[in-house]
Amino acid sequence: MRTLNSSKPTRHAVGFRSVQGSGGGAYRVVWLDQLDGEAVSVRDTITSPTPKLSRDRLRRLEKLAHDQKPRVVWVESKNSYQLHVKIDGRTRRVGLSEKDYDLALQKVPRKMIEMGWAEDLEARATFGQAVDAYLAKRRDRPGSRGRAYICKNLLAFFTHDKPVANFTHDDRDSWQSYRTGIARSTINAEIQIVNAILNQAHKEGAVTQQPVKWEKIAEPEVERLLLSKQDWAGMLDIAANMLRGSNRTGRLSDLELYLHMVRYTGGRRSFYIDLKWDRIDLERGTINFAVVGETYTTKKRPLVPIADELMPILIRANQERAGSEKVLWQGLQFDNIMKSLRAAMRRSKNDRMRQLAPVIHSHAFRRSFITWCVAEGFSPWVIGKITGNSAQVIEKTYAVFKPDHALGLVNRV
To answer: Strands across the sheet with 80-87, in order?
Structure first.
């Protein structure tokens, strides 16, 4: 610990104590601070002849240090939070333009730097602070639980106090080595979150220089799973004969309803999990996947027409709903639905079903629907309007080319 002499307490003092001078005739106040991460003991040059005066001096210093701490205060007239900082005996105020306390608190370091009330604050921004700011902005968005789990693992590996400015490509390699045995796509998803955390810290002023971007790991080319319409029919038959299936209960199960709807609409599984009957208009023949009152910046929820083959299925399901507001009336976890389907497919006598059982997943249904539409010659723009994607994403990401798709073309030419 270093010892410095000073007549003024530092703004970031972390503690005080009273000590007796040499010879026992005077008392000094010592306060503790940190400079560049090193503990510092700063001695007060004002001496006091008695312990009582020394303690009074101690209380004044403690009050001064407390008053100088930045405070986030709600201002009713502004209907938002303000930052209050006491400098040279005067309270300085500046608006944070936030109604949420946690988000206002995250803006304090950046605002302190902007106003010139803090020096080198950006150099002390830690990974833990950056993670807290990242999660605070996304706590009400879909996938918050998964993001929080990944961030928990990252903090356990890198620690809360690692400076954001110190991240390098070597850290990415260390993380990759630590995650040995994990799928590359999972590691790339985690790398994407790290980049988002570091970029937000830079954008909000927690660090002055752009952090090093972690490059994703190149993934080998793999054949993407594509289902045929016969595959779909086979899975529907299996679903109908399962324990909760309609052939046993007389009522369409959640799995059957999902397979029927995704067969003719090609949506993401999230489209169907929260779908309610008030968003299905059987008279006009439309399904509105958007939740009323919610906005969607990406992965939009479209309004789609009901196919002629799907209409009688929905009419029957509506009659069987028994007062349920949700279309998937059983309220099962979607992962459990797919798990039960895979288990039933493994027991099937159909070779193709047993072959698909280990690899079938919900996104394969969406990809197959889009590929069928492209193969039939429909415009990617129209397909994107139905599935909630841009035409570019339809062509680049979802549509899978098979040689037999072009058989009609080469035969005609």
So the answer is: 71-75, 80-87, 90-95
Question: At 94, which helix (H) or strand (E)?
Answer: strand 90-95
Q: Within 10 Å of residue 364's Cβ, how many Cβ atoms?
A: 16
Torsions phi, psi of 395, nearest 5? Answer: -75, -40
DSSP 216: P
Alpha-carbon distances, residue 13 vs 61, 106, 112, 299 (angstroms): 9, 21, 17, 49
- Mind listing the pLDDT tens digit for each residue in 151-185? 888 988 888 778 887 788 888 888 888 888 787 87
DSSP state letters, 218-258:
PPPP-PPP---HHHHHHHHHHHHTSTTSHHHHSS--HHHHH
b/e 154-168 (16+ beta carbons within 10 angstroms → b): beeebeeebbbbebe
Q: How far is CA 46 from the centre of its chain?
A: 53
The pTM (predicted TM-score) of the whole model is: 0.50
The pLDDT tens digits of the residues spanning 330-356 come to 888 888 899 999 999 999 999 999 999
Sheet containing 38-44: order of strands = 2-6, 38-44, 27-35, 15-20
Give DSSP secondary structure letters for 280-335: EETTTTEEE-SPTT---SSS---EEEPPTTTHHHHHHHHHH-TT-SBSSTT---HH
